[in-house]
């Protein structure tokens, strides 16, 4: 049946040098996709691509600053040259949190860095890739947002704004490009065991507070997020479009005021 049709194709995962992106790239490669492993940290991207190759998969590591149009277009062109076809699967995962700041402490440079990396990137990749997905009648886009794309969070205003924007953009791509066989969905993780989620200088205190808030009393593993991305891209994901999936152990499901009664 059409809705269960497997489509193995060329994929791009951004920010795939470590964390959630690396786990996603490995999963997609294991499922048979050829994977462009994009990251601003080239060496890490190469290590992930080498691990994929060692496991029998196909991967191409490329340096790409996702907030810069020239680098995005150059890296996509390199993937197309290598494998002779346009990427039909895209996971916009590269993201930065930035320091915890009040709104009046955020500099222009910090705003531009976070918004360009987390949100402008989604526009740059979408504008470049959607026409070829439309031409092939198939596309799968997964945007790694955050529960901070659904809720406010003190001292993270720029990150929160960028992730809310990502979710709005996800819904709009879904509406605009769904008729051409293209789906676009967002994943909203809570706290994941990666370098971004746990800042080294505050690790013990941060972990204690996250565990206390989490109904399941742990943070997520990167592969738990990657598995959801794989589902949205895979043969059972075709009817899911414009959705935002919370995957946070229940953190955002409860107000918490009555917990101590
Ligand atoms: N870790 C969490 O708790 C958590 C929670 C919610 C959402 N997220 C989101 O998940 C995504 C992945 O984060 P992670 O936790 O794996 O973090 P991470 O820091 O381990 O990995 C992010 C990767 O993105 C790369 N990157 C950063 N800026 C880039 C740029 N300009 N161009 C290309 N690559 C760039 C980094 O080099 C790194 O390899 C992010 O979008 C993040 O906002 C993470």
Spatial order of the strands in the main sheet?
3-2-1-4-5-6-7
Question: Structural class, judged by helices and strands?
Answer: alpha/beta
Can you tell me the CATH architecture? 3-Layer(aba) Sandwich
Low-pLDDT windows of residues: none
Instruction: Please report the total strand number as a whole number.
Output: 7
List the keywords.
261 residues; alpha/beta; Rossmann fold; 7 helices; 43% helix; binds nicotinamide-adenine-dinucleotide
Molecular structure report:
With 261 residues, the chain is an alpha/beta fold. The protein has one domain: NAD(P)-binding Rossmann-like Domain (Rossmann fold, 3-Layer(aba) Sandwich), CATH 3.40.50. 43% of the residues lie in helices and 15% in strands. It has seven helices and seven strands; from the N terminus they run E-H-E-H-E-H-E-H-E-H-E-H-H-E. Strands 3-2-1-4-5-6-7 form a seven-stranded parallel sheet, sandwiched between helices. Helix 1 runs parallel beside helix 2 and helix 4 runs parallel beside helix 5. The radius of gyration is 18 Å and the shape is globular. It binds nicotinamide-adenine-dinucleotide.
Topology:
Layout (H helix, E strand, L loop, with lengths): L9 E5 L4 H12 L3 E6 L2 H13 L3 E6 L5 H15 L5 E4 L15 H29 L2 E6 L12 H21 L4 E8 L13 H11 L8 H12 L10 E4 L14
Parallel strand pairs: 1-2, 1-4, 2-3, 4-5, 5-6, 6-7
Helix pairs in contact: 1-2, 1-7, 4-5
The structure holds nicotinamide-adenine-dinucleotide.
